[in-house]
Amino acid sequence: MHHGVEKVKIFEIAKVYLADDRLPREKTCLGIVADVDFYTLKGIIESLLLNLGIILNCELVTAGVIESKLFKDGKAAKIKLSSNILGYLGEAKEFGFKTSPYMAELDMDLLVEKSNFTKKYQTLSQYPPVFRDLAVIIKEDYIWADIENCVKNTKANYLEEINFFDIYRGKQIPAGMKSIAFNLCFQSQDRTLKSEEVDLAVQTILNSLHETLGAELRKQ
């Protein structure tokens, strides 16, 4: 911010020291500060947990007292991992910020301990990928992680990757809605895909997004 950058998304992994009865207790934490709203930062956290293979064991708790002193009263949530507290997410207290950023603090030691880093690898395809860009209009309550999970659960034929690239709110978008754009990559391991095959896979994804989240394809 001292360099004229007002909208930031930053993170840091560092050791923190907690007061104890006798000696300070040390743990490693992941801190995230971003000039975004609650739901956007929640989506970032959920994408992280999804990639680490532990999102199904996590729960966001908004009721009750938040023990962390970093957040504004009544504007924070606790992130639980099974029976443990993984961290907190909410609006940051006024630490000299010109804006009202949201932040998250996660227990990095617990995150590493519970994560599933098992990865599967396959040989690179010799055949060219096919890319399609889509934009869907969806209720404001939904976040990118909801769309990403829905698309992946569809298990559309030949889908290799899905990547977010834009979010838009404006005159062309109804109140209470937003447009989220993303890129799909399709590829076969044994042949070049036909356009009709990709069209069918895209339609399968759009049908799933509509049935599950009420999303509609945004037309130019």
Quick take:
The protein is an alpha+beta fold.
Please describe the topology of this protein.
Blueprint: E1 9-18, E2 25-34, H1 38-51, E3 58-61, E4 71-81, E5 84-92, E6 102-107, H2 108-114, E7 130-139, H3 144-154, E8 159-168, E9 177-186, H4 195-213, E10 216-217
Antiparallel strand pairs: 1-2, 2-6, 3-4, 4-5, 5-6, 7-9, 7-10, 8-9
Helix pairs in contact: 3-4
Plain-language structure description:
With 220 residues, this protein is an alpha+beta fold. The protein has two domains: 9-114, Bira Bifunctional Protein, Domain 2 (BirA Bifunctional Protein, domain 2, 2-Layer Sandwich); 130-217, Alpha-Beta Plaits, CATH 3.30.70. It is built from four helices and ten strands; from the N terminus they run ββαββββαβαββαβ. The protein has helices spanning 38-51, 108-114, 144-154, 195-213, and strands spanning 9-18, 25-34, 58-61, 71-81, 84-92, 102-107, 130-139, 159-168, 177-186, 216-217. The strands form two sheets. A six-stranded antiparallel β-sheet has the order 1-2-6-5-4-3. A four-stranded antiparallel β-sheet has the order 8-9-7-10, with helices on one face. β1 (9-18) and β2 form a beta hairpin. α3 packs across α4. The longest helix has 19 residues, at 195-213. It is globular, with a radius of gyration of 20 Å. The relative contact order is 0.14. The model has no long low-confidence stretch (mean pLDDT 85).
